[in-house]
Design a protein that fits this description.
The complex is a heterodimer of chains A (247) and B (239). Chain A has 247 residues and is mainly α. Chain A contains 10 helices and no strands. In chain A, helix 2 runs parallel beside helix 5, helix 3 runs antiparallel to helix 7 and helix 3 packs antiparallel against helix 9. The radius of gyration of chain A is 18 Å and the shape is globular. Chain B is of the alpha/beta class and 239 residues long. In chain B, strands 6-7-8-3-9-10 form a 6-stranded mixed sheet, sandwiched between helices. Chain B starts with a strand and ends with a helix. Classes of the chains: A mainly alpha (247), B alpha/beta (239). At the A-B interface, helix 1 and helix 4 of A face helix 2 of B.
């Protein structure tokens, strides 16, 4: 047990060290969402109500997309570069590796979401009824979901090109019909049903909920539980696709 | 040859998409020896090594110190160096070794000494991405040495190295073997066989020879391993 905790912690540190040698990627991860939110505010110049409606939901979308891409590429590099095979010859358990990833990218997501939330609330004048921490909490749940799905799909990519293409394939549909552009109730029935099968829908719902409710509703908590359940499922499937021994 | 066996294979078969990549290999590798796994590229060397380190599915019998290959118990006792250096390019040499030291349950104090062993002390704080191919290969070797594994499986560890460095590495391999470690070193360069105690000659997934180099030359009436290899392929068997 001690070994597995140490292996997880070492993996967490190792990933952060790798990222620390790549300040440009870190800057992009942290600054791009803030700039995009600023752009959006400008776009809805004078229409504060409309901005208030869409901006919080985006706070859930950014970490999801960014962590999905970063994780799938990092994992793919491990598979292609041979370090994954080396790890598989060692005592480290698959879950030690996966948890190390979740911790590292989870931390990154907390920083990203805190920055973006601060910009939203203090810089762009977003007013939300609920507690601020729930914004960051939901963003963290989304980031972990993105990380878990990124780990999973990287098993199905052979090159970095393919891994990047999973973004429009897996992520964009969720953004399009997740309730961000058209509210779920106004969608065709079939699309609404499809939307309820996708995790990002619940994240967007939770974020919208916090804008209009002073306390965290049961619906919002249910949304978080659903996102967490998708994350666990993706993680378990990811562990299954990670083979120690191959044909 | 004497000494107890470290690696033993009986009718070892590996099939990839219905093609036999390894065809009923039966051999033994002695403990405390350097065994050269020699054969042209595409002959199945890497597949055999992957089977030994436990990441390749196989049929037949393959044991390391009597334990079936792929068992969890073996994960702390085999060091594996892949053909392409398996290291993190965006970490320094020391950071690479410290990470794998934790995973191999090795003492962190070992890290500096091992970096010195592979002659990379001057570069220890350099990012792996900035190293030359030969330096990366040595980082990969250093990682395999962490935790003092009993068996070292090295896939073409000296390719592209400067001859002086190559000689030093072979000296290191000899020292490791003297200290009781078992080394299986693959190469497609037949001269490297000169430095091995025993040879596994392999071609198209079939084993041509598993014994000492001297006996090979004697039986084939040749003076080099390369000639002996050609002789055996042409005759189909040893006279």
């Amino acid at each position: 047990m001690m070994y597995h905790i140490r292996a997880t912690a070492a993996t967490f540190q190792r990933i952060l060290r790798q990222l620390s040698h790549d300040p440009r990627t870190l800057a992009l991860i942290f600054i791009v969402p803030c700039v995009l939110l600023g752009l959006l505010r400008w776009l809805f110049d004078g229409n504060t109500a409309e901005f208030n409606k869409i901006a919080p939901a985006l706070l859930g979308v950014f970490p999801f997309i960014v962590m999905f891409i970063v994780t799938s590429i990092t994992t793919l590099r491990e598979r292609v570069g041979g370090t994954m095979e080396r790890l598989m010859t060692l005592r480290i358990a698959k879950f030690d590796l996966l948890f190390g990833y979740m911790l590292a990218f989870g931390l990154l997501a907390i920083v990203q979401a805190s920055l973006a939330s601060a910009v939203l609330v203090y810089g762009l004048g977003l007013t939300i009824q609920g507690p601020d921490w729930f914004l960051i909490f939901t963003a963290l749940a989304d980031a972990l979901l993105g990380t878990a799905l990124g780990l999973l799909v990287s098993a199905f990519a052979k090159t970095e090109f393919q891994a990047v293409q999973f973004m429009p394939a897996f992520v964009l549909p969720q953004v399009l019909i997740g309730g961000l552009i058209v509210p779920l109730a106004q969608m065709p029935d079939v699309l609404e049903k499809v939307a309820y099968c996708m995790p990002l829908t619940y994240a967007i719902d939770a974020l919208n909920d916090i804008v209009t409710h002073a306390t965290i509703s049961n619906d919002a908590w249910r949304d978080i539980v659903v996102v967490a359940a998708f994350t666990v499922a993706a993680l378990v499937l990811g562990a299954v696709t990670l083979r120690r021994r191959t044909k | 040859m004497s000494g107890e066996q470290s690696i033993e294979a009986k009718k070892l078969i590996v099939e990839k998409s219905k093609q036999r990549v390894l065809d009923e290999l039966t051999f033994i590798v002695r403990k405390g020896s350097i065994t050269g796994l020699i054969g042209p590229s595409g002959s199945g060397k890497t597949t055999l090594m992957r089977a030994i380190v436990g990441v390749q599915i196989f049929k037949g019998v393959l044991t390391i110190s009597g334990v079936p290959a792929g068992s969890a118990a073996l994960r702390t006792s085999i060091g594996y160096v892949t053909q392409m250096p398996a290291i993190y390019e965006d970490l320094t040499i020391t950071q690479n070794l410290r990470y794998f030291a934790t995973l191999a349950n090795a003492d962190k104090k070992q890290v500096a000494a091992i970096i010195e062993t592979v002659k990379l002390t001057a570069q220890k704080n350099q990012l792996a991405a900035t190293l030359s191919g030969g330096q990366k290969a040595r980082v990969s070797l250093a990682i395999a040495l962490l935790g003092n594994p009993d068996v070292l499986v090295l896939d073409e560890p000296t390719v592209g190295l400067d001859p002086l460095l190559r000689r030093e590495l072979w000296q290191l391999f000899a020292d490791l073997a003297t200290s009781g470690k078992t080394l299986l070193v693959s190469s497609h360069v037949m001269d490297e066989a000169e430095r091995c105690d025993a040879l596994l000659l392999i071609r198209d997934g079939r084993l041509l020879w598993n014994d000492s180099r001297e006996l090979l030359l004697q039986k084939t009436h040749t003076t080099s391993v390369e000639e002996a290899f050609v002789y055996m392929v042409e005759k189909g068997h040893v006279s």
